[in-house]
## 1
Amino acid sequence: MGQPPTTLRDIAKSLGTSIGTVHRALHDNPGVSPETKSRVLQMARTLGYRPNLAARYLSSRKTLRISVNTPQGTTSFWDEVRGGIREEADSILLENVEIQFRTGSLVGEGEEEALESAITDKVDGIIIFPSRPQSLRPWIRRASRAHIPVVCVATDASNSGRLGIVAVDTLASGSIAADLMGRFIGPLKKSVAITVFDMAITEHAEKYSAFESTMARFYPNLQVLKPVEDHDVEKEAYRKCRKLFAEHEDLGGIYITTEASVPVLQAASDAGILDHLTIITTDLFPDLVSYIRSGAVVATIYQRPRAQGQMALRMLHEFLAEGGGRRSNQVALAPHLVMRGNLEFFLRRQSQESAKDKERPVRNASHALAEEFG
Amino acid sequence: MGQPPTTLRDIAKSLGTSIGTVHRALHDNPGVSPETKSRVLQMARTLGYRPNLAARYLSSRKTLRISVNTPQGTTSFWDEVRGGIREEADSILLENVEIQFRTGSLVGEGEEEALESAITDKVDGIIIFPSRPQSLRPWIRRASRAHIPVVCVATDASNSGRLGIVAVDTLASGSIAADLMGRFIGPLKKSVAITVFDMAITEHAEKYSAFESTMARFYPNLQVLKPVEDHDVEKEAYRKCRKLFAEHEDLGGIYITTEASVPVLQAASDAGILDHLTIITTDLFPDLVSYIRSGAVVATIYQRPRAQGQMALRMLHEFLAEGGGRRSNQVALAPHLVMRGNLEFFLRRQSQESAKDKERPVRNASHALAEEFG
DNA sequence: CCAAGTTCCGTTAACGTTTACGGTTCCGGT
DNA sequence: ACCGGAACCGTAAACGTTAACGGAACTTGG
């Protein structure tokens, strides 16, 4: 039920050459003539050669160095992403992964420098949050040319040569938010709002579009206003929302897709409409808990940062280990829905996981780099 | 930044003995005196020895044989569980896992025989759905005594010596169902119903309890009736629900936790109250789709069978590979919520995944056993 | 025509573990 | 005293890959 897998020796023998030559050919190392090389490649293909990773690791003993370039952020989102990455790194059987965290203190600040540092440091792979895809794109492209695979988390940098992307499905997020809000508000004729980081970011535009189209399709009584862009700046969010609330007296609900949800809630509270609004937020962090408990926030769309981190590292490691990777490089996670009812479940889980993060042994010598970026 | 890991040779040298003795001691193989054994174990501990899995696998080329004992089922649920297991098996770097499917044709039929077969076949690990925990418990205990780890999926067989359990969190499922239903129905005074497989099964009792307590806490206007037990028998479900609908004219909604949701929907339709009921179902399969699209089913709690399969195999493999396993053996997944809005996302994903299952190469020689159980 | 490269290729020693085999002791029975 | 056999232990060959070394053939410059 499956003959023994073909080895380098098999290829060498059936070609009348040596194991060293085969190895050089398969890794296009210098020292092998073009014709032998093609013969080796051909034979490897027909014999269905697949490298034995155990032997490779045992022999070369080199550890994969992976740089994780993410911002500190204003919530625990990125802490959880990093926790997921570390957890996944620990569970890799071959203990050959070393994670280097290049954590920037502010979103968008120092991203390019950190990425450059990773490239010049010749890491084997990079996980990055490209908060400004357009400015990062040339750097990612440069990494790809240096044969350093780059995996994006949370936001895509399309057309940059990046290896893959792990993010929450924007369509699923926006649509369920709309569907829930529509059901909650009921058949009244109202307007509903949405806040986004910036419509220039594909993901945010997609979320808006999904929200809007689902609303139009199932709840024509609700009219979606044009999005509020807050750039995760708390003051901006507060100011724009106060204005919005003042201008639209018929506002029935608001879907907050950004991290800066507390300022929006504060604005609603200050405007005296917190209890009249159906509010759906994004992600789950301590400041939100009391709003959910009290019912002011009816639901929050949890983007599963830990799962995003895990999948990103898995994708990268699989690519590096196999030298190619055969799976899809586009992971779209389904978001979780958190409400009053199941809130405790998620809180318990979060605290368990962050406890595990802290007690984690330093097996993989993953340590924050001395330098801080941003 | 981390000295080289200690090897068998290190232990042997610092003890003035040989590598073979150390190996025998660590695996309590015969041929080593009790005192040397304890000295070796002691030294291994102080040096912090951890076996090099790559070397182990390379040397002893033995493949792990894992038996997957699940029913065929009446929906695609178990197909997806099996798909997740195979997918995870394929993504294991060391390609040393062979999956044996012992699929029973009916739930609960032939489970014991299948488990016995796996044990006498001396597989290295077992993944099982214990539909009737009490009757399976002695068999699981027997497997444990034979040092065969057993992982339960979907339902726990507690106190049986099983290695671990992967299931959807019952509290999160029941609570979110209650919370949603409460919001959807609104402030009217109504009664709500729930169908379960059998209250004797812990998970189902827990789901009911979570549903009931969340409802009582947040929506005191809604009274939860005592559960309908249908044992996944379609006729039973239909009959009992018709009776329920006739007896409770003030019924506002029903939460169907079992696979037999279509008969319940049919009963509601035949009773002419399909449109007046807030219906929440469980899982996602073709027969449900049209009900969700039409809005008759407002939401369904998706138990992520694929993820359950993946996690179960991961847990088992980690245990087998490490010879111990250091992670928690209790995985409680958060269910996904599927509504009209995000339905298409899940359908697309399901079809992608089942397509991948079909085109899967037979790398791991995972084949259905000739014998069929049940 | 020889020294000095260059280009290609074969050989071999690792990597850490498992496993089979051989070699000591030491003991009880003839 | 000798043999048989435990009981304990050391040795060495695998497993498949990598990487360093060395050698052969062939080119070049003096």
Note: Residues 17-21, 24, 30-33, 36, 55, 57-61 of chain B lie near DNA strand D (CB under 10 Å from a C1').
## 2
Amino acid sequence: MARSVRGGPETEDTEMPKNPGAQAVTAVRNTLYRAYLKAVEKGLLEAGAAENFDISEPRDRNHGDLAANFAMLWAKPLKMAPRKIAETVLAEVEDCPYIDKIEIAGPGFVNVTLSPRWYAEVLLAIDEAGDRYGEVETNKGKKMQVEFVSANPTGPMHLGNARGGVLGDTLASILQWTGAYVEREFYLNDTGNQVDLLSKSLEARYFEHFGDSETYPFPEDGYHGDDVTAHAKAYAEQFGDSLLKADEAERRQKLATFALERNVARMEEDLKRYRIEYDVWFRESSLYPTDVDEALEIMEKNGALYESEGALWFAATKFGVEKDDVLRRANGFYTYYMGDIAYHKNKFLARGFDTVIDVWGADHHGHAVRFASAMRAMGLEPERLKFILMQLVRLTQGGEVVRMSKRTGKAIALSDLLDEISVDAARFFFCSRQCDTQMEFDLDLAVRQDSDNPVYYVQYAHARICSILRNLEAEGITPKAADGLDLTLLTAPEERELIRHLADLPNQIAIAGRDLDPSRMTKYVVETATYFHKFYNACRVRGEEEGLMQARLTLCRLTGQVIKNVLGILKVSCPERM
RNA sequence: GCGCCCGUAGCUCAGCAGGAUAGAGCAUUCGCCUCCUAAGCGAAAGGCCGCGCGUUCGAAUCGCGCCGGGCGCGCCA
């Protein structure tokens, strides 16, 4: 697939698709600033005004396509009333092929109406770029990693993992569209206390299976889920009762490995069903001893370590945090934190990522803050490590909050969710809110929500477009190449609104990549559908005069292209019929 | 106590590197298929943008202080 090599080291250095939205802004800025300089030359205005004024879409369409605020911004430095500045500048403006009209309005806004030629060029640019329309190069040449889900393999994945999975996966796609080389990674906590606890839980269940619940009573804070019982049973059925008399350490180790591998296989399968595939499954256990030793060596060299009360400490206070942390307990075992430090040392120093993004639950934010100090202690710029701290999904059923916890066994599994709603709906839903909003997920509603979900609204727009193309095709009308048409015939407000919005895709992708905000894409594509539906209701394609019909057909086709590109980023299917 | 996130229409949420009259969906009411997919479109109604002060020509947007909700502050992960 072409998409999978996007941004990869093997990608040819092909020319970037045109970005008509950015071209318009640049043209307007240059035209206005050049006029200002001319006015300065003539002695009409003082010199020194900044070129970086704001050019943005006005909220009210009656104000034109783009609005510039330089007159208000310059009022103070130029010691002149905003409207007067605007008038003086506009008197010096020269013709620009993208600009039709410039007006002064309100307190001193300069409103620009773009030319039919610009509108036509937007469509030509989309047609030319095709499947690549929307690509930008804001992260060109960067090697990035997105680590997400990284659920404890001690049980099935829950809804929080579902949200993190979609956010991380989609963000990775977006970053690829901004020109970066991106790897998706799952960090597997296959060692440590939680695994230990799992092994003790398994041990108890194993003995129970053979009718002995006395010798190894179930640990108080153990994993109560049915899956643990199932693992023990499966082991017993597969390998018999040999472990009853085995050495305790060996027994626990065998049971834990058995369960872990089953869980990992299941997670991989569930995620695949969810259209998520990783480049790397990184095992925590592989960090020992090399990465841990190397990380400690660097920290030692930077004076970040000391020993106290038998434990090894990280002097985090020296690196901008309030409290020191234990890295190796008095009992000789390393803490999770040490593992995580070694892990990130590996990401940056061994594997050379420029930027790493970790998608974590918001309950880890304290850890995220502390991590900046660990980065400094290793001599790495903290800015290279970014976090998406995602608020957890609150699951409700019949109006009541369902607590999610692996240990109590009450978690709603990701696989259960996908039995209830489509992957398209789930992906779109989890990507439709900003990461830092707390989501409420009503299980009862989720099933009914199907016909109500915005994903169908978007898919419907695409299906409608395909239907128009099909119908005309059946009448022997085939779409002509865009560059041979008179696209300036598209002058209806609904047509212009739609075209302007299509022109904005590259910009939206750049912002989504900059802000690490995948929800930008769902919002954009819902709006695309809205503008298309409005156009559809206002303008007809079939039965219009040949030139206009072909121009509108092209607009339909290219709107479909844009929807397809964005749904592709979201990994949501793009049906031709509904 | 300290730290992070959130408070916008009845509900779910946009808008936030400041910009002109604050938006959408759902729900409510009323319209639109002899016409390319009505899973659609249009209209009405609905708001001290949590509160206060400040910065600014201009604040939902930035700063400070409150109030309310969520989450963290372990030799757990």
Note: Residues 193-273 of chain A form one domain.
